[in-house]
Amino acid sequence: MNTLVEVFHPALSTGSVVNRALAQAAGTVDGVQVRDEYALYPNFQIDVAAEQEALAWADRIVWQFPMYWYSSPALLKQWEVMVLSYGWAYGTNFALEGKELMIAVSCGADRDKYREDGEYGVNGSDLLLPFKTTARYTKMQWAQPFVVHSAMNISDAQVQAACEEYVQRLQ
Ligand SMILES: Cc1cc2nc3c(=O)[nH]c(=O)nc-3n(C[C@H](O)[C@H](O)[C@H](O)COP(=O)(O)O)c2cc1C
């Protein structure tokens, strides 16, 4: 199985702990290709043909990112607008049909805050509904998301454990 891990972190190599470790761990798995999207497109000028070609190779697509304001960093939204185009991903053609989509997200907040009776008043899975709906609309198969909580205050051992779990999910 070919897996494309598309990482959307504005400072993956300089300001990230969790996503950098996860991306490195993912890169050790056979059949996994990792793309640092912000490094490729720091000015948001996305090469749509190159992205679509990378997607065509994959059987499984992973969108990996830190949660920013209860959603993804901005480049993923721009990427969706540009890359998931009419006539390619939906409408008259469904290039991603049958591929698996997995969200891998790190959240600064701990798990208890993401409950309807918690501080944020919402389940974490509800925040991912736009991505789930996108998967459905483009005929991709929605995989169980991979979530790392408490990502701003995380020990080395917890990062290591998250990486091991991530590698298992990607194998
Ligand atoms: C602009 C910004 C917005 C953030 N918004 C959220 C948020 O809505 N929910 C949350 O749990 N954490 C939030 N965080 C914390 C990040 O998710 C956290 O720092 C990140 O997952 C850590 O991963 P990293 O080490 O790869 O950067 C935010 C951080 C920044 C910089």
TrEMBL record:
Keywords associated with the record: Oxidoreductase
Domain of life: Bacteria
Domain (Flavodoxin-like fold) ranges: 1-170
Pfam families (UniProt xref): Flavodoxin_2
UniProt cross-references to InterPro entries, sorted A to Z: Flavodoxin_fold, Flavoprotein-like_sf, KefG/KefF
Keyword Nuclease: no
Coiled-coil residue windows: none
Any one Gene Ontology molecular-function term assigned to this protein's record: FMN binding
Keyword Oxidoreductase on entry: yes
PANTHER family documented for this protein: GLUTATHIONE-REGULATED POTASSIUM-EFFLUX SYSTEM ANCILLARY PROTEIN KEFG (PTHR47307)
Protein name: General stress protein
Species annotation: Galliscardovia ingluviei
